[in-house]
Amino acid sequence: MKKRSFITLGLALSLSLSACSSVQTEREAVGDNPSPTTDTPDAQSGVTIELLGSSTGESDINIIRDQLTKNGFTVKLNLQPDYGSFKAQQDAGNFDIALSSWTTVTGNPDYAVRSLFKTGGDYSILADPEIDKLIDEASTQTPDQFVETYKKLEQRLVTDKAYIVPLYNSLKSQAFNKEVVDEKSIRLSKSRSLPWEELDFVDKSKRASTPLVLQQSASTLTSLDPIKGNDGSINMLNTNMYVRLVNLTDDDVITSKGSLSLNHSIAEGNSEYYFLLRDDINFAKVENKAAVDSGERVGAEDVVFSLLRAKDKNSVPDHRTYTLHEHIKNAEIVTDLKALEAVKQAGGNKTVKEALEQGLNAKISALVADKTQANNKQGKYQVVKLTTTEPFPQVLNYLAHQSGGIVSKKQVEKINTYDVATFDKNKDIPYGDQNTVTEGATYNNTLYASGPYILAYKNDYEAVFLKNPGYMKGTEHEPRISQITVRFIKDADSSLAALRSGEIHVYYSVPETKYEIVEGDSKLKLQTLPSNAVAYLLFNTKNREVAKSEDLRKAVLYSINQDEILQFYKNHKRKAFSTVSPLVKTGNELKADPAKVQEFLNKYRESVLQKPQK
């Protein structure tokens, strides 16, 4: 999930990030001494390592500091109060190692590495051709083939080059008030964010009159344009504001259920993907802080527009998810019914048409280009064909990601009239700008939501989401509750107190150290399962000694004792070797080794002493 977010990037853990209430500019973060280098030692001195983190990860910071200190390092802490300040320091290069995390919210291993470690990736600060080659090679392989490739990738990333230091794999968790929330309605999925449309009260009479209250720490939202953010401030929010072509089941299987597609099919060759669209979703808009049906149907032209802009790095300024969709070659509306009959489905004898018709009440009698002419009951459907640059079945996992959310072509083009190349953040207002939904002088809500809920307004205290009145009415997927309120609560103790007092009803991403308190409260229910979230230390690969010296990075690597970290968390966390660990069992394991620490530190010291003195 998410996006490099601190501690819970990706979004499966998306609601546990700290608030971005006081964000430093890069100039302020850098100050008068931009990107100072690590202290260079003489033969006898210690080595200073600057460790960057945020207050939400203070326990991890303390453990890592103690382990490094025990192995002879002098640790300089750069502890920031919130994620925004942390990110400003990271962008300014004010760190040697930064406490980071990634959650694979798509359920596929390619997502666990592409954005983070590939040259030019959305969140990558690495540039290693061998890693690039291994990522691309694994992306085209089947699960039985890619295990060995990901093992080599991990070894290059961790053992050989020490670009990261793995810490642990977390559980995914949430707690809720079972006296208020119907236990049967609340899901905990390995990768997917919490589906709001299924949530319900124990007392069904409260659906229309009582808000269901959730929480998250971040009050500043990166963007409500689904392609412009991939972090914990917006992952769950955008997932519930924009419908996608496919979804993930709770155990990470691709499904059309609850998505914009009634069915989907992969053609022979694994490069062509077909989606049969449903006709019962309209975009919601906000008028006078109330959700209303815009009257505009979500259709094929919106899908094509959304996918093509998702893959285009230059479609919007500050595009943060384009690498997730770079395998999309084209998206188009299919109007020739015979074309579906002429193509065989991958791995079977059916035609694509037969596959798309499976389970339909009315077979396909006609395909229409105009979304207003679609009528599923009469057999008139819309079909979108997506073509990939190469055989790449993992493209479906990316379409299930929040960045695959379908936006209104008409509305986005109406709002985004600026020139991307000359975009001025001080005067141009893009679609999804969080300031437009924030109460006050800047409020001018222009959102069009294709999902079950739309954000009506927010302030520093909470964000109010209202049911989309045009979303799958009369089906099992129509939202039950009229209002979902997301309360902004910065720290874990306050969130837990709010849950226990009844101020909130669901607490997403409960820290492992709070499990016993939740389990001891008779009105609360704790849900946990293994997650795809991995915490790690990221080395600065620019302007620091750790960027230049593999020996120095490896000395840090072998200082970290995962057993001690797991012991602190009462074994509610698991060992990890990379962000791929929860998805692919490579057999790689990091073992602390004080002897290796001293070996690599000595090599580093020797290399420093041999450098010509200026």
Structure description:
The protein is α+β, with helices and mostly antiparallel strands and 614 residues long. Among the domains are: 14-171 and 532-609, Dipeptide-binding Protein, domain 3, CATH 3.10.105; 244-280 and 299-407, Dipeptide-binding Protein, domain 1 (Alpha-Beta Complex). The chain has 18 helices and 19 strands. The protein has helices at 26-30, 58-70, 83-92, 114-117, 129-139, 143-160, 235-241, 300-311, 337-341, 352-357, 395-399, 409-415, 492-501, 515-519, 545-548, 550-557, 562-568, 594-609, and strands spanning 47-54, 73-80, 97-103, 164-177, 212-216, 247-248, 254-255, 261-266, 272-277, 282-287, 290-297, 328-334, 366-367, 380-388, 453-458, 462-467, 483-488, 506-508, 524-539. A hairpin with a 3-residue loop joins strand 15 and strand 16 (462-467). The longest helix is centred in the first third of the chain and has 18 residues, at 143-160.
Relevant terms:
Dipeptide-binding Protein, domain 3; 25% helix; 21% strand; 6-stranded mixed beta sheet; 18 helices; Dipeptide-binding Protein, domain 1; disordered N terminus; 614 residues; 5-stranded mixed beta sheet; alpha+beta
